[in-house]
Structures are given as C-alpha cells and as structure tokens.
Design a protein that fits this description.
It is a single chain. This protein is α/β, with parallel strands linked by helices and about 200 residues long. The protein has one domain: Rossmann fold (3-Layer(aba) Sandwich). It is about 35% helix and about 20% strand. The strands form two sheets. It has a five-stranded parallel β-sheet with strand order 2-1-3-6-7, sandwiched between helices. A two-stranded antiparallel sheet has the order 4-5. Strand 4 and strand 5 form a beta hairpin. Helix 1 runs parallel beside helix 6. It is globular and about 55 Å long. The relative contact order is 0.17. The model has no long low-confidence stretch (mean pLDDT about 95).
C-alpha cells in the first residue's frame, strides 16, 4: 500500500509550548513513512483577502487582473494544490476568544473558492475536495468542545464539509485552564487511538 501524503497545518501564535502544535506533531508521528507537507500559518502568515481578491470572477481574463490579484490567485492555487495532494489533513486548532485564530481563517478564505473547491448547483453547493481524512487537534483554555460557547470546531467542521471534507476526527485538549495534566493525558490517549 502506498504511504499517504499528509498536510499539517499549524496556526498557534505560540511557536513553543503550544498544545495544538504538540498534538499535530504527535498525530503526524502516527503515520510513519508518510510524505508530510507543512504549512505553518504563524511562522509564514497568509495575507487577508482584500477587495482585489474577492472581486475576481470565475471567468476573469488574466490580462485584466492587477499584479496583486495575480499574486493572490497564485498563492490560493498553491494552498489548494497542497490540499488536493493530501490524503490526510491535520489541523492544529487553538481556540482564541471562542473562535479560530485569524491565521487559520485567512487560510480558509484563500482556499474556499467557487469553481475550485466547491460548486454552486441548482440543488445547492457541492464540495469538490472529497475522499480526504481530516484530523483536528483542538486546544483551549476554558472552552469545552461542542459546548454553547464553542464557535471554533462547529465552524471548522462546517466549512471543511462545505468543500467536501466530511471525514473529520476531533482530538480535544479543551479546558486546559482547569486541569492541564488530565486534559493532556486524555488528548494523548485520543491520539494513541488514531488508526493510521
């Protein structure tokens, strides 16, 4: 059997002592021999989408685009190519103020493209990035995964599913502020149960 290709996405602003980074590394280690593509959104931040990017239409002729627009499309194409190449996507999700880090939202805004990663049809939207496995490593100080104040994991599940990625596993290291040792032990047990 061919070794899988993994895309590892880290988004924690903590470059050291980061729980989500520790967990994404541990998850990747489960896939011994895999090809790993790494995208560190804190070390190499992505630009926020701007008017130039959001006003590009599907049929825009290249000669009508500014250099800035062409650069943003090229970056988006690179990010989408990384996703398409991956069999397994491992996403580090630190929860900031009940939601996603801005760095991770910037990545989503650059990959969610009509006609590229999803299509609108008469029967509703259809995701184009199917057949992929996603493992999310969620870390939070006080937000419990799946609770009424967790706006991060439901959103990430929804937007990934919108693009066709519905096979999603959640490794949760939530409520670290209350029991860091117990939470980490539980998260490590969850990682140990991942089938590579």
């Amino acid at each position: 059997m061919t070794s899988p290709t993994l895309l590892k996405i880290d988004s924690s602003a903590r470059l050291t002592d980061s729980v989500s980074r520790e967990l994404t590394n541990a998850i990747v280690d489960k896939f011994n021999g895999a090809t790993v593509i790494t995208r560190d959104l804190a070390r190499e931040p992505l630009p926020q989408v701007d008017e130039g990017f959001v006003t590009i239409t599907k049929g825009s002729a290249p000669e009508t685009l500014s250099q800035g627009q062409r650069d943003m499309i090229a970056l988006s194409d690179t990010l989408v190519a990384e996703l398409k190449a991956a069999d397994v996507i491992v996403i580090g999700l630190p929860v900031y103020n009940f939601g996603l880090p801005a760095a991770l939202k910037a990545w989503i805004d650059l990959i969610a493209r009509a006609g590229v990663t999803f299509n609108y049809t008469q029967d509703g939207p259809v995701g184009l990035l199917t057949g992929k496995r996603v493992i999310i490593a969620m870390a939070s100080g006080g937000t419990e995964a799946g609770s009424a104040i967790d706006y991060a994991t439901p959103y990430l599940r929804h937007v990934l599913g919108f693009m066709g990625m519905t096979d999603i596993e959640l490794i949760r290291a939530d409520k670290l502020a209350f029991d860091a040792a117990g939470t980490m032990a539980s998260a490590q047990e969850q990682v140990a149960r991942i089938a590579a």
